[in-house]
Design brief:
Elements (H helix, E strand, L loop, with lengths): L20 E3 L3 E6 L5 E7 L4 E8 L11 E3 L6 E3 L17
Antiparallel strand pairs: 1-2, 2-3, 3-4, 5-6
Length: 96
């Protein structure tokens, strides 16, 4: 929705969760991890086009919670990465 008011319009399709995008002054930075390595993209408000900034390795499986953040000036990106998942299977006999 324009800041000065007016009708709301959709600018991005397929960005599923609010924790996978950040709004900056000149556009939206978002995480696209549909296929292959995750890609960080920038949607420019002026051109209304998205371009890839970089690709990142998020590790095995997508982490829960906030996926990434970006500095207000757009120069720094911080993202979470899973190095490994571990789990233990235990057999409990005579459980009551």
């Amino acid at each position: 929705m324009p800041v000065d008011g007016g009708e709301a319009t959709r600018v991005l399709e397929g960005v599923p969760a609010a924790d996978t995008w950040v709004i900056l002054e000149k556009g939206i930075v978002f995480l696209d991890n549909d296929k292959g390595p995750a890609r960080i993209k920038f949607f420019d408000f002026a051109t209304r086009r998205a371009r890839e900034i970089t690709s990142v390795d998020l590790g095995p499986g997508a982490p829960a919670g906030k996926m990434f953040s970006i500095s207000p000036d757009g120069k720094w990106i911080l993202f979470s990465r899973v190095d490994q998942f571990e789990s233990d299977i235990m057999l409990v006999e005579n459980f009551r």
